[in-house]
């Protein structure tokens, strides 16, 4: 009797230790095989979305299932091509005016040094000039070209995985209830996030065109991508165009207008429209969302941050199916179930 009671008392601790060991081993696999796993996971999520859209088109418009899938893949590739075109055009425009931006930086530095000296502050102008010359800003913009090429190669790999996924999928829905619930929840989340992100990107492009940014297209694409990162994505998307506007016009009404309009855009799109359409979202605690964002960013880099919420939600749904691991799923939802 004594041993039985002790075994029951230590069961949660044993389960937690086993989960930690399994999670550690799985994390090692994710890091080691991320070159292949990332495109495959992206293809899996895209497959969920395309399957949901194809099924909806078949019910609403009597479109054949495979025709809907092909239309979705063509739409995805079209958006990828447009994104590459926008980014390439913006980089080319920025590089063409790089001498003007350098002169603007030097003039701003001279003005700042003069202002500091008038205020009685001692400034090492040579140190500031050397620091300015070592700024990686221009090299970072130039290196975006290699990022574009890497993006194209990943898109091709994702497309290949998509083709193989749909080759093995039948027209009739023969999946289990659990698989269907995962696909329904994840695909709905991704579809809403895509629509909201696309709206934010279009409004960002419009705002930056009004304020005269030469890289409006690239920042619109970045806004679309960053909007998939919860909590901090909108903040980064708002701050990114400001240095370029400063290089073009200095600190004047262009920057002030951009800050006000972009902040209003992300507030309306993120806090009103997205909240209304998603409701409780993926039933994850906000602290868990932040923790998962950090974890997946460390494991898979920026792409991990983009996929953090749907990946964590899938883990939560898997944990819910087993009574032994269900308390951990409740923990992810912010409902502490340990006794």
Written description of the protein model:
The protein has 339 residues and is an all-alpha fold. The protein is built from 14 helices and no strands. The longest helix has 35 residues, at 286-320.
Structural class given helices, strands, pairing?
Answer: mainly alpha
Estimated share of beta-strand residues? under 5%
Biggest sheet: strands, sense, closure?
Answer: none
By DSSP (H or I, 4+ residues per run), the number of helices equals: 14
Total DSSP E strands: 0
Q: Can you give the mean pLDDT?
A: 81
Q: How far apart lie the N and C ends?
A: 21 Å
Helix and strand pattern: HHHHHHHHHHHHHH
Q: Name the helicity range.
A: over 70%
Low-pLDDT parts are none
Rg, please?
25 Å
Give the CA-based shape: globular
Summarize the model shown.
By secondary structure, the chain is mainly α. It is built from 14 helices and no strands.
Descriptive key words:
single chain; 339 residues; mainly alpha; 14 helices; 0% strand; globular
How is the secondary structure organized here?
Elements: H1 2-32, H2 34-61, H3 65-96, H4 98-118, H5 125-133, H6 137-142, H7 144-167, H8 177-210, H9 216-226, H10 233-239, H11 241-249, H12 253-278, H13 286-320, H14 326-332
Helix pairs in contact: 2-3, 2-7, 2-8, 3-7, 3-9, 4-5, 8-9, 8-12, 8-13, 9-10, 10-12, 11-12, 13-14
């Amino acid at each position: 009797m004594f041993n039985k009671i002790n075994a029951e008392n230590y069961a949660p601790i044993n389960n937690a230790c086993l989960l930690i060991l399994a999670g550690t081993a799985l994390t090692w696999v994710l890091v080691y095989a991320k070159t292949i796993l990332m495109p495959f996971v992206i293809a899996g999520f895209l497959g969920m979305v395309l399957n949901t859209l194809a099924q909806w088109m078949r019910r609403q418009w009597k479109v054949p299932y495979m025709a809907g899938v092909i239309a979705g893949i063509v739409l995805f590739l079209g958006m990828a091509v447009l994104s590459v075109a926008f980014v390439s055009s913006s980089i080319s425009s920025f590089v063409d005016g790089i001498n003007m931006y350098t002169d603007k930086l030097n003039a701003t530095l001279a003005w700042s040094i003069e202002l500091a000296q008038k205020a009685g502050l001692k400034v090492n102008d040579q140190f500031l000039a050397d620091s300015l010359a070592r700024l990686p800003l221009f090299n970072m913009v130039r290196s975006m070209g290699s990022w574009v090429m890497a993006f194209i190669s990943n898109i091709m790999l994702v497309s290949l995985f998509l083709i193989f996924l749909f080759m093995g999928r039948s027209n009739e829905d023969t999946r289990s209830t659990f698989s269907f619930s995962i696909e329904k929840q994840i695909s709905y989340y991704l579809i809403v996030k895509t629509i909201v992100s696309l709206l934010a990107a279009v409004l960002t492009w419009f705002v930056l065109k009004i304020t005269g940014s030469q890289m409006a297209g690239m920042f619109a694409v970045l806004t679309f991508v960053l909007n998939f990162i919860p909590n901090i994505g909108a903040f980064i998307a708002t701050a990114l165009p400001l240095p370029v506007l400063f290089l073009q016009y200095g600190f004047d009404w262009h920057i002030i207008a951009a800050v006000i309009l972009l902040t209003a855009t992300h507030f309306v799109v993120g806090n009103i429209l997205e909240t209304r359409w998603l409701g409780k979202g993926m039933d994850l605690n906000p602290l868990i969302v932040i923790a998962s964002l950090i974890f997946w960013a460390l494991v898979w880099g920026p792409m991990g941050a983009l996929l953090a919420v749907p990946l964590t939600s899938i883990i939560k749904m898997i944990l819910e199916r087993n009574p032994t691991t269900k308390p951990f799923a409740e923990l992810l939802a912010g409902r502490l179930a340990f006794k």
